[in-house]
Each structure stands twice: as structure tokens, then as C-alpha cells.
Write a structure and sequence with these properties.
The chain is an alpha/beta fold and 353 residues long. The chain contains twelve helices and twelve strands. The protein has helices at residues 55-62, 85-92, 112-122, 131-141, 158-170, 188-205, 216-222, 240-245, 250-257, 298-302, 333-336, 339-347; strands spanning 6-19, 25-39, 44-48, 70-75, 78-79, 95-98, 176-180, 208-212, 225-230, 233-239, 308-311, 314-316. It has an eight-stranded mixed sheet, sandwiched between helices. A four-stranded antiparallel sheet has the order 2-1-4-5. A hairpin with a 2-residue loop joins strand 11 (308-311) and strand 12 (314-316). The longest helix has 18 residues, at 188-205.
Length: 353
């Protein structure tokens, strides 16, 4: 069995939003609630869910950009939470992040050469005299010309800036990259090129991705496994092909049913959620999804479900998953999901955007 590069166990993060006059917490938001998962070397695990479900907070917890309220994060066998500042800095050489906004992620006062040279100097990876050659290598690796390294970020398009962000992450030869909505700010054709680039880099370098997205079309093309989050918890996780073809949790079924089908003569997806998402300040008892679930039963109101095996490599947190059949149209997402993006991914290689 392959040893995971990342192992997360019972990870939680609660943010205090209101305190008493004497500093006692009066109200907390459970942004991430008892989340456990593993990522193997060279694997992509995607996290999907509605805005505010805790995906981005989870990514920052993994890198220890914020401190957890409970739980452990083990990277390459080391407990990240137990590392001192010096050890954490060494570990972060192998754990990098690609942010959503390529315009805000780069220092506008630095040239691309300076941006890519900075991590090389900070971690002492390459001697100063060899840094120009390494910068040129990184530029070629992400589909840019080495001579463009003399430019400033504002002289590049959005897709090119995201390539520079990717090059900066790769500069320190990471084993894991957290991609936080890494393509959501790009238009669809550029998105296809960046997805192809990420897949190509993974195949060549063996890097693992924790891929955060709300776009199921993107997830379908990049991830080997998918975890669905709702109000800070994982409600379903499994192989991407299986999850898209046969979702077992009502929330996953609703997400897939909401995807437009490019078939004017086809049947409309009828599985829709009713009601609003509960407040994270006051989660309902039992299953957090029961207030919107069309299959709610008394046990759902009384007991919180835990992830249990629905099939090999496929787990669901639902009391009634074995009674629920996928609605018409949910399984069709496997073949009809975002045909425009599929065509563009097939048409574009990892060329410069």
C-alpha cells in the first residue's frame, strides 16, 4: 500500500465571531468540522461544494497558514502541527499553493525573474550564479519564453500570470500543491489550457494536488478522487468516475442535477434542493443537510451520520444512502458534463495562454 503524502485526521477549525466583555467566546462558526482524508503521491483529490462550505479554509489548514482547533495534519510522515518555525519553513518547501486570483498573487513591483528567484534564494536551492538558468527552465516548463522573465506582471495576460504563479510554486520542487480555485478567474478557453498544463506537470513531476473548486466540470477533468463538502464536513468521497456516474448522497445528486445538459431535446433535471443553507453559527442537530433533504427521516434529525463505505473506495455520510437511487440525469453528468470545456481541453495543449 502506498504511503500517503498527506494524511488529515479529524481536522476542525472554529472561528470565534462574538465575545463577551471579558473575552469569553459567545458564538463560533464551525468552518471545518471533523474532516479526515489522505492523498497519495502524484494523486489529485478535489474538494467541491457551495461557497462557504469550508474548502478554502481546509486548504489553509493543510499548509498551516491558520492553526486548527482540533485534529492533525501529517505531511510526508511529519505532524505539521508539532513543527517549530524553522522546521515548518523547511516543510513548506515541499507544500505550495496556487491562489485563485493571478492578479493579486504577484508583486507588481518585481519582475518575473525576481519573483521566481525569490523562493530559490529563501530556501537556498540554487546558487546565485545558477539562478538565471533555473528561472529560464521554469519559464519553459509552464509554456512561457525565458526572455519574458524581464517583464513585470502587468505586462502579461491573466492566463500567463497564472502560469507564472504555477512556476513560482514549482520553483522549490514541491511534493504537494494546494490549488485554491486555481482556474475559476480565467475564461473557459484559458481554463482548458491551464488544466492541461497542470495535468502535464503532474505526469512529468509526480506532484500531488489538493484541488479546490466549485466547478464540477473542472473537477471531472483534473481529479482522480472527489470529496464533496457541506457546511464544513465531507458528505461523500470516492473515485471521480464512480461519484459522477452514481452519486449516493442527496447533496451530491443535487449538485450534479444542477449542471445544464447540452441537449435541447433531453429531459430536464428535476432534482432540486428546497430551502436555504443553515447558518454556520447554529448548525441543526443530527445531519446538517436534513433541513434541505427530500429524503429526511427521524434518524436524520437526531443523529449525525458518519462516513461509511458504500462501495470499495466510495464513502457516504448519509443514514439512508442505500435506499436512495440517483435521480434521472445525475448519472448523465459523466458523459455530458460541460461539453464546451471538454472540446477545449481536447483542442488546447499546455500552450501559452
Amino acid at each position: 500500500m502506498t504511503t500517503p503524502i498527506l494524511a488529515v485526521e479529524s481536522l476542525s477549525k472554529h472561528f470565534v465571531v462574538r465575545r463577551s466583555l471579558f473575552g469569553k467566546p459567545l458564538a463560533q462558526v464551525a468552518a471545518v468540522n471533523d474532516v479526515s482524508f489522505e492523498i497519495a503521491p502524484g494523486e489529485t483529490l478535489a474538494f467541491v461544494g457551495e461557497s462557504g462550505c469550508g474548502k478554502s479554509t481546509l486548504g489553509r489548514l493543510v499548509l498551516r497558514l491558520i492553526e486548527p482547533s482540533a485534529g492533525t495534519v501529517r505531511f510526508d510522515g511529519a505532524d505539521i502541527g508539532a513543527l517549530d518555525a524553522a522546521s515548518l519553513r523547511l516543510a513548506r518547501r515541499h507544500m505550495q499553493m496556487i491562489f485563485q486570483d493571478p492578479y493579486a498573487a504577484l508583486n507588481p513591483r518585481m519582475t518575473v525573474r525576481e519573483i521566481l528567484s525569490e523562493p530559490l534564494m529563501l530556501h537556498g536551492i540554487v546558487e546565485r550564479e545558477n539562478q538565471p538558468a533555473r528561472v529560464a527552465e521554469l519559464m519553459r516548463l509552464v509554456g512561457l519564453k525565458p526572455e519574458q522573465a524581464a517583464r513585470y506582471p502587468h505586462e502579461f495576460s491573466g492566463g500567463q500570470r497564472q502560469r507564472i504563479v504555477i512556476a513560482r510554486a514549482l520553483a522549490v520542487e514541491p511534493k504537494l500543491i494546494v490549488c485554491d480555485e486555481a482556474v475559476s478567474a480565467l475564461d473557459v478557453s484559458i481554463r482548458a489550457q491551464i488544466l492541461n498544463l497542470l495535468s502535464d506537470l503532474q505526469e512529468r513531476l509526480g506532484v500531488a494536488y489538493l484541488f479546490i473548486s466549485h466547478d464540477l466540470a473542472v473537477v471531472k477533468h483534473i481529479a482522480q478522487r472527489v470529496a464533496v463538502m457541506y457546511l464544513g464536513s465531507i458528505v461523500e468521497v470516492g473515485e471521480a468516475e464512480t461519484l459522477f456516474a452514481s452519486p449516493r448522497h442527496p447533496y451530491t445528486q443535487a449538485l450534479l442535477s444542477a449542471i445544464p445538459i447540452a441537449d435541447p431535446g433531453g429531459a430536464a433535471n428535476s432534482f432540486k434542493l428546497e430551502g436555504d443553507v443553515p447558518s454556520a453559527l447554529s448548525l441543526p442537530p443530527g445531519c446538517a443537510f436534513h433541513t434541505r433533504c427530500p429524503h429526511v427521516a427521524p434518524v436524520c434529525v437526531e443523529q449525525r451520520p458518519v462516513l461509511s463505505a458504500a462501495a470499495e473506495g466510495h464513502s457516504v455520510a448519509c443514514h439512508r444512502w442505500h435506499e436512495i437511487a440517483a435521480p434521472d440525469g445525475a448519472g448523465r453528468a459523466e458523459t455530458e458534463l460541460s461539453p464546451t470545456l471538454e472540446r477545449l481541453i481536447a483542442a488546447f495543449g499546455p500552450r501559452a495562454a
